[in-house]
Amino acid sequence: MADFHQNGNIATLHNLRTNDAAALSRELETFANTRKISLILPSLFSELEGEALPKILDELSEVPYLHRIIIGLDRADADQFRYAKQFFARLPQDHIVIWNDSPRMQAIDDRLAQLGLGPCEPGKGKNVWSCLGYLMACQDSSVVVIHDCDIVTYEKDMLARLVYPVANPNFPYQVSKGFYPRIGHGKINGRVSRMLVSPILIALKRVIGDRDYIDFLRSFRYPLSGEFAMRTSILPDLRMPSDWGLEIGLLSEAWRNLARKSVCQVEISDAYDHKHQDLSPEDKSTGLSRMSIDICKSIYRKLATDGTVLTEETFRSLKATYYRSALDLLEDYYHDARMNGLSVDRHQEERSVEMFAENIVEAGRVYLENPAETPFIPTWNRVHAADPDLMRDRKLAAELDFKEIGSA
Q1: Which of 49, 63, 76, 153 is the most exposed place for a label (fewest CB within 10 A)?
Q2: Which residues of 278-304 are buried (b: 16+ CB within 10 A; e: fewer)?
Q3: At the top level of its lineage, which domain of life is listed (predicted)?
């Protein structure tokens, strides 16, 4: 995005098109001599059969500064795990595929459950948490990067720009979050970020007043992006949401634990696209409907921990204010698209707004029925305090699976 605007809350690092991508890579190679960089790829087995991941591996194969790649594999049986090992074998970097559904890993999960520390539900949050535990057990990386496996427009330069702010020892950043325009097939995409998160943050500010947390979230150009880089020193105390509120949850942890000068967002792509979820207005347990409810609950819980009192009246007012704010933004997106030769399906956008408005109240109802619910996976510091051997045993289980299953 060709500007140099700063919002005054967190640093925004732009791509001003004045530096060669190869130059960033060379600098990162230098940093990596003393500050090892690892990459986590949370993946469903189904993504191995999609169009995006093979191209991602092609690009990653040319990245010289990565110390290790950790692939967390979900929803795979033994044969699929064997296939995944072969699929990722062309990566030249040291790498491991963690079979999260293996008997060994399930036994470790049972130990966690007996301690009352098991993850609430399977999903991306648990997958990332598991991979972070393996990384910490390795004790040899200073920086970790996380990005999705369904990015159809992936280029290795995205990784370099994402990790540079936290890998550079002269920068103060502990967390870097990617942003970009979601564009594909002649359309503006990113409905949940555009038509839910942006207008609900506007509405919250109008309904409950100024809050530092709301201002913090509003500072991010793309708060729902799945691309993060972090210094590993912050990982042991990181509370990972187990539901679809992962990205908002990680930003909330940054807001809770870090100074504003330690957080930045960085422009990583001119045109980004990935797999699209169905709207699913008829089923609140799947698709964008489920995602929108989980995101709203994540925001409500964080506001409550900061002392905000939320009531039925709050959520009714929020719904009405959100609806008006979202329709106003829809006009802005429509004009922006037209000026750039892109399209916006106004009927589908308004359908999304109507569903999100209903789910704002639904999420409020769920929150009020169980305000003490904590859908967070325990921090690795707490797990280690309860069972000092578990992190080591989990690492050993993952390595035994990778070594033995499918080997001659």
Answers
A1: 49
A2: ebbbeebeebbbbbbbbbbbbbbbbbe
A3: Bacteria
**Contact in structure between 55 and 151 (CB atoms under 8 Å):** no
| Residue 408 confidence (pLDDT) | 41
Amino acid at position 253, single letter: E
Structure tokens of 127? 């997958």
Nearest-angstrom CA–CA distance, 362 and 256: 26
Note the pTM of the prediction, 2 decimals.
Answer: 0.94
- Cβ distance 244 to 296 under 8 Å? no
> Which pLDDT value is given to residue 242?
72
Q: How far apart are CA 144 and CA 158, in angstroms?
A: 15
The distance from CA 260 to its chain's CA centroid, rounded to whole angstroms, is 19
Quickly tell me which residue has 């892109």 as its tokens: 342
- Give the pair of three-digit tokens for residue 301: 């819980």
Contacts of 76 (CB under 8 A, 6+ apart): 45, 84, 99, 101
- The answer for residues whose C-beta is within 8 angstroms of residue 225's C-beta and 6 or more apart is 177, 178, 179, 180, 247
What are the tokens at 215?
A: 């201002």
Pick from 201, 191, 244: which is nearest to 350 by CA? 191
* Enclosing H/E stretch for 79: helix 78-88
Find all residues with CB under 8 Å of 367, minimum gap 6, and list them. 297, 300, 301, 304, 310, 373
Instruction: Please name the helix (run of DSSP H) or strand (run of DSSP E) that holds residue 176, with its range, or none.
Output: strand 175-179
On whether the CB atoms of residues 171 and 165 are closer than 8 A, the answer is: yes
Could you list the mean pLDDT of each consecutive 10-residue stretch along the chain, which spans 408 residues? 86 92 95 98 96 96 98 97 97 98 95 85 88 97 96 95 98 97 89 96 96 95 95 94 82 93 96 70 72 92 91 96 97 95 92 96 94 79 96 97 78
Is beta strand 376-377 parallel, antiparallel or unpaired with respect to 240-241? antiparallel
